[in-house]
Prior knowledge:
There is one protein chain. With 492 residues, the protein is α/β, with parallel strands linked by helices. The chain contains 19 helices and 17 strands. Helix 3 packs across helix 4, helix 8 crosses helix 10 and helix 15 packs parallel to helix 16. The protein is globular, with a radius of gyration of 25 Å. The termini are far apart. Zinc ion binds next to loops.
Amino acid sequence: MYPPEFVELTRVPGIGPKTAILLRERLGVESVEQLRGAVGDERLRELPGFGPQSEEKIGVAIERLGLHGENRRAPIGDILPIAEYIVARLAENPAVAAVRYCGSLRRFRDTIGDVDVLVASEHPEAVAAEFVELPLIREVLAHGTTKSVVVTDQGIHVDLRVVRPDEYGAAMLYFTGNKEHNIALRQRAIGRGMLLNEYALAETDTGDPVASRTEAEIYESLGLPFIPATIREGRGEIEAAAAGVLPGLVEVEDLRGDLHVHSTWSGDGRSTLAEMVAAAADRGLEYLAITEHGEDLAINGLSRQQVLAERDEINTLRRAYPELTILHGAELNIGPEGTVDYDDDFLAGFDWCVASVHSHFDLAVEVQTRRIVRAMEHPSVNVIGHLTGRKIGRRPGIEIDLDAVCAAAGATGTALEINAHLDRLDVPAEMLFRARGRSDLVFVVSTDAHHTSELGNARWGVQNAQRGWVEAACVANTWDSDRFLSWARSKK
Ligand code: DGT
Ligand code: CA
Ligand code: CA
Ligand code: ZN
């Protein structure tokens, strides 16, 4: 029998049992934690069959899968497709009356401990039987009528709970959490002569059920408006709801434009400009900023000549899509000193400039802050893209003085982008929450799409914004195009 840490090692992609034995014999590595250390010390690359590339791959896999540490968490971008797949499969089962994922994933935390799937059904055995047989499942840890736990191929734990349809709302509230929110709701129930648990809200004296079928009915019976799952964190949302001052959160339907989009003009774009514009028009967007990389990003960026050639193409597309306002923008690279691409005259020719950090992630906090503030001071820079440059679970992002950055954003009239890409979700929700209530801040929710299929990612940016209590009124791409365009022009 091997110890569990050793078995866990074989769950790392690229490490089979043979390799695991080699690792133990040659490097003394017996756990994921030790493997991580060996990657850090560049010892793995010396083993037969390994090299710097495969070593790096394994290092990335360990981080990405959240395979190390005590409270292992995985990036939301790895989890969401799996959860959506499971929910879609179960939804087809005739025994399933309703299904959704709850837990931290529904609250849209950027890292996830485990997936919590909730099903309403009169036939729980039939649901559990299908669940434990789903193709992506590697191991069944528990298989009961109402409760099952499995592990997927990628080492992700998925909890299944099956409840009766009339308990669905109470169960959803409970399994969505978070725990602090649940506890505060229970306290509120007690104060009103009721008991709240995962089955129902009921009268304390008689045990008579008050509400259980939907979350909205339970909130209402507790004298509260519906509280969106994205802000259920026990951070004052219940008090705000009770006082009638919940933030007017931005919703995906509020968005009228996308202000950070690439095409194959950029080295890393995968859909043509014509395809991007057609897809944006199809989605009913009112305005769209095409923002290719600037010349400072050697491989992916556009020379001045290319910029002018793209402008001609955009002019042609403008005639083909009179309903869509197309802005010719750019995504400028913020250098370590806070400078951006091209020169001031050339920059003045763009309708909209995003400026973002793509390198030098390790500078001191004062240097990074000055760097961002300098970029904001440039008259052509409308918005800072993906503020920290983090990649969730893969790269921590730059350190900045958030107060100073927010103050400069307000003073210079520069917006902060909320980048909707699931690997980024940047500005991170925690920072947005810390900056909440600053009336001088303007945000935009942008997809940073490199392919037409990514234009739909706007919804993830919106959920991240909601977690940070960002109000629709502060999001410039909810404004009608006249207001948006006059605001965008006002900086220069
Ligand atoms: P995670 O999985 O670490 O990313 O975070 P959650 O929030 O999904 O946590 P999880 O999976 O342990 O539990 C799902 C929900 O169940 C949690 O958000 C609230 C509820 N819950 C779990 N344990 C307790 C508890 O001891 N008391 C109360 N009131 N609720 C709990
Ligand atoms: Ca969970
Ligand atoms: Ca769980
Ligand atoms: Zn971009």
